[in-house]
Each structure stands twice: as structure tokens, then as C-alpha cells.
Amino acid sequence: MTAPIYRPPGRGGSALTATLLGLSLGVLGLLGNVPYFLGPAVAAVGVLGSFYARRRRPSSRSLAPLVPALLALVVLTATASAEASTELFAGLSGLAFLVWVADEPTRPAGGGRRAAGTIGSVALAVGVVWAIGLGFGGRTEEIGLAGALIATGLIVLVLLAVSVSERPLEDDELPRRRPPPGARAGPEEAFPWER
Amino acid sequence: MIGPPASPSSGRRVVWTSRTLLFIGFGGVLTAVSVALRDPVPLLAAIALLLAPVVAGLRSPPGVSNAALVWEARGSGTDLTVAGELRGEFGPSVVDVAVDLPPPPGVRAVRPFRVDPAPERIRFEANWRLAEPSILVLEPPTVVWRDPIGLAERPVGGERSTVAVLRYPSTFQRIAGLPLVRTTSLPGDIRSRALGESGEFFGLREASSGEPRRRINWRASARTGRPVVNDYLLDRTGDLVVLLDTRPTSLGPALDDRLLGVARAAALGLAEAFLRSKIRIGLATYGEFLEALPLSTGRIHRVRVEQAILRTRRADVAGPAERCTLGLRRFYRPGTTMLIVSSWTGDPTYNLLPYVQMGGFPAILLCPSPLPMRAGRAGLEPADEQLAARLERLQRRTVISELWREGPVVDWDDYWTLDPLARVLRRPAHRKVV
Predict the structure, then answer these.
(1) Cβ atoms A34, A42 nearer than 8 A
(2) On the CB side of B177, how many CA atoms lie within 13 Å of its CA?
(3) DSSP state letters, B368-384
(4) Residues of chain B found within 8 Å of residue A2, distances taken between Cβ atoms
(5) Distances B160 to B73, B122, B156, B157 between C-alpha atoms, Å
(6) Which of A66, A74, A77 to substitute to test the interface with B, most B CBs within 10 Å?
(7) pLDDT in tens, B5-28
(8) CA-to-CA distance for A69 and A49, rounded, in angstroms?
(9) CB–CB of B80/A116 below 8 Å?
(10) How many CA atoms lie within 13 A of B86 on its CB side?
(11) How far apart are CA B23 and CA B7, in angstroms?
(12) Contact state of B58 with A157 under an 8 Å Cβ cutoff
């Protein structure tokens, strides 16, 4: 047997990533317009709710642990004013959420590291959109530009995904070529002229 | 025992998980909020949620599309160990390949499911305990590559085969010595290898404790100075058809599957026992329509019976009882003893016994009781549980006793022995009834 790489169920491993998510959401709450420091409180409730829901019922199929953090993300981003810093922390919160989700306690350790490619690609998209938003001044134009970028990127990616996931033809489904004039196929070699 | 290989599944298509739907739902909400409030902040958060599933699906590694499965079931009695190995070019993505093998109904996991991954193979082992004798056909484990965030899955294809688990106690074999109704024209048509109390004289042996006095050969005992009894070659002249009822009942699919597993174990145990005695055995399964295996004997027929039993599945639709009788008349000669194995639940139209008897077949109903399987499920206190079990048993006996008007019925609630059936077969009254 090789070294056990599966963690015992119910154990932590997600405290670091949960802290990262809590910090990014907390800063977003501080920068937002929620009065009386309720922003960090909403962030704390959301992250702690998700953390304990995951500890209580660890399952990679369960959706319940993700919902509190996502609700906190919706509330905090909806109440934040449009500034470069809040936009940056909104994007970072989304990325931190992905890192926390990847650090699933019921799956082999190092989920965040293995998901670095996926999260890196998403981070690149977030960075590009944030940088474009930083370069352009107007709010409406910014939304339109960012929306158009996302829509274009999504369409391209969906087309790519569809082309990649198409089933390849099986051997018996391959198109049969006609033999060239004069060529004969032996019993052991069906298409000797195709070499 | 390994069954026929299933067709290789396509291991190419990416499947989105429910987590993806949640991401897209919340991403859509954030986008809508962003557009409604004309505020770009929610949109920045939505990008991560909307893009992550697509990127995760695109990044599925191509090397884990196929894996060959070699697996087996080991153990004896109630202990069952299922172990196997998946061979493929997994590479470093092996840690994201999930192997799932849930225990079938009626089987309890004794230890957690163990997986030992390596770049070129994945070993797995499950330790289970059977609650009752059963014949199970284990479906191959589901093997999927799942991206680390849990957004996209891709089934790992390859050759898969089912594994059969045949577990029934050896006590089932004892029933072969019991007499069946004569259906052959002349005595001695089919010779038996079983020894019993009547038939052609075979030999003498030392008496064991509890031997009936009438079997003791007093002259031989006087000569040898110790009690000696006669052994006879049993005169096996009857044929037997085992009719497996696979129709769905009101008990639900989970209990139906467990009862069918027990019924299959009884059918195979009985068939094996009688085939050893050179008795001709037929097998019929009735779900929506009748499928029948003609009467025959011998080792090849034993394999045929076993394969037919392993192929048996619970039917989705229940056929009428009359159709079963009409089908039986096409395959078997009237007068052949019919052993119906059916988990009858009280519905009069469900009862095959009167219809089979009207078709001219002497029939015995072996009725696996669902009560032991339901025990302890109500969450009652132990005392209340015992009382509830007694009441349920009394109610079932009342229902079963009404069935006795139509023919002999065996309520089978101790699955590890077929002695209740043997008692019915031993009774001379049974021969009168049938």
C-alpha cells in the first residue's frame, strides 16, 4: 500500500483557506457601505456558517456548506460602492471562495494546489476585467465593457468545451476509404494501402 | 465469480455537477444585481463563479479516459470482501479519480471503503457483511475523474464486468432427500444417488443417536453386537419447477431487491440440491412475462440454471397471475411439482398459487417474509420493538393461514434454513393436497 493521502473525514485542512476567504470578505465588508461594521459581521457569519456546515456533514456532493459564504458574497458585493478597491476585493473574494471550495476535507489533501490551473485562469480573467475597469472611467461603460468581455469569453470557452468533449469515432465507425485502383486487401490487413 | 463483461462506457464526455448549477445560479444573481444596480462590483465576483466551471471542464486530463477493471468477491458465510484493481494511465491526476462502490441493499459495510491510488493503478477494497443468504450481482464501481473544485466530472470508461456473490447455507442441500410427487411414468426412470428411508436397499451402517427404531436392522444388529440401520437408494421419480416471482410489490424497490436476493439463493440452493439427486429441474421467472428454462438435469443444466438465476432482475411492471399460468402450460407438462418462491404481501390478484394449481400444477408457495428485514427500522424502544414484531408476525400468520385454503404455504422468516419447507414436504397431507 502506498502512503495514505486521504484525510480522515471530518478533519480540518480548510481552516487556512477559510481564513483567507474570511479576510477577503471582511475587507470587502469594511470597504462597503454597510453601517455599524455590519459588513465584517456578515462576512464572519457567512464564512463560519460554511466552515461549520462542512465540518458537520463533510461531503463533496453536499451544496449546503457553500450557500452561507455565497450569500455573504452576494450581500457584500451588492452593498459595496463602485470603487477600484471594492472591485478588486470582490474579485479576490470570488477567487478565495474557489480556493476554499477546492480544499475539500473529504478529498485528498492539496486540492487548492491541484486546482491552481483552474483558479489561475479565472484569476487572469478577473485581473483583465479589473484592469480594464481601472483604465476606463465611466460606470455604465465599464459594466458594458466587462459584460461584453465576459460574454465573449464564455462563448469561446463553451465552444471549446463542446469541441473537446465530443466523442471520438470508434474503430468500426471510421469512414472506409475506397482502395486505389489495382490494390487488394488481404484477410489479415484490411487496408494495407493506408500505411 | 466474474460475469460477462459489460459494454465499455464512453469515458469522454464531461458531466457538470450540481455544484456547477449552484455556481451558475449565484453567478447569474450577482450579474443581475450588477446590471440592476449599475454597479460593477458584483460582476467582478460573478466572473469567478461563471468562469470556473467552464475552465474546470476544459482542464480534464485526457489520460484518465480508460481503465481496465479486475475485481473479485471473497469471503465465506456472511463476510464479504470485494477487492479489485483499476489499471490505466492515470498519472498525477490519480488523486482526483473517485472510485465509488456503495453496498447493495441488505449489505452492511464493516470497515470504511479503502482506496489505494498509484499513477498506473488504483486498488480498492470493501469489507461488507450480509444480513441474509443472498445471490447478488454486484455492478462495477463507478469511476469518475472529478476536478479539484468539484465542478466537472468525467466518467472513466473501459471494460467492466459484474461480479456474482453466491451465498446460501449448506443446510439447503438437505432438502434433496425429500419425496416429490411422482411425475415419471415408471419407477426408477431417474436413478438417485441420495440415500434415504425407502427405495432399493443400498447397505448397512452404524446407527447414530436419535435414529428411528423402524430403520434399525435387528438381525444385523444382533450379529454385530451394535445397532445397525438399513440405507436405501431413494426412488427419485419427480420433477420440480422452481418459479421465481420477480414482480414488484408494495414493499418498495429496496426491500423487493433484498427479498429477490433471498429468493434467488433459495432457488439456486434447491436446484443444486435436487440436481445432485438426478432430479429434473426447471426454472421459470415471472415478472411482466414468463421466462422458462425447460426441465433437465446434469452439470451443464446446473450452469444454465445458475446463469438464468444471475440474470434475474426485479421487473418494473407486474404481470397478471393468469398470464403466468398460460406461460407455464406452454413449457411444462401439467402435474409437475411447482415450487413458487414469491414474497406475497396480501394482494389477492398477486397470488400465483390458485392460478398455478388451476393450470394443473401441484404447487407449494415458499414465501420469504419481509418482517426480519424490517425489524428495527421503526426506531422504537427494544420492548416496543419486540411487541411490534410479535403483532406483525401474528398478522402475517393470519393472512398466510387464509392462503392455506388454496394450497400449502411456507412462511419463510428464518432465511438460514429451509426446514419449514422440508416439514411441509415430509407431511403425507402435503402429498394428498397436491
Answers:
(1) yes
(2) 13
(3) E-SHHHHTT-S---HHH
(4) 116-118
(5) 15, 15, 11, 8
(6) A77
(7) 444 444 557 888 899 999 999 999
(8) 7
(9) no
(10) 30
(11) 34
(12) yes
The complex's ipTM?
0.73
Q: In what order do the strands lie in the sheet with B158-167?
A: B2-9, B158-167, B134-138
Contact A94 B49 (CB under 8 A): yes
**Residue B67 has which C-alpha cell?**
481503465
Give the pLDDT confidence of B77-95 residue by residue, as tens digits. 889 999 999 888 887 778 8
**Residues 6+ away with beta carbon under 8 Å from A19:** none
Number of CB atoms found within 10 A of residue A28's CB: 31
B89, B120 contact by CB (below 8 A): yes
User: Residue range B56-74: average pLDDT?
Assistant: 82
Q: For B301, left (φ over 0), alpha (ψ -120 to 50), or beta?
A: alpha
User: Chain B partners of A73 at a C-beta cutoff of 8 Å?
Assistant: 26, 30, 45
Average model confidence (pLDDT) across chain B: 83
Select the residue of A98, A126, A168 nearest B149 (Cβ to Cβ).
A98
CB–CB contact B50 A150 (8 Å)? yes
Q: Do A82 and B39 touch (CB under 8 A)?
A: yes
Tracing cell 414436504 back to the chain, one arrives at B425
pTM: 0.66
Interface A:B, Cβ pairs < 8 A:
173
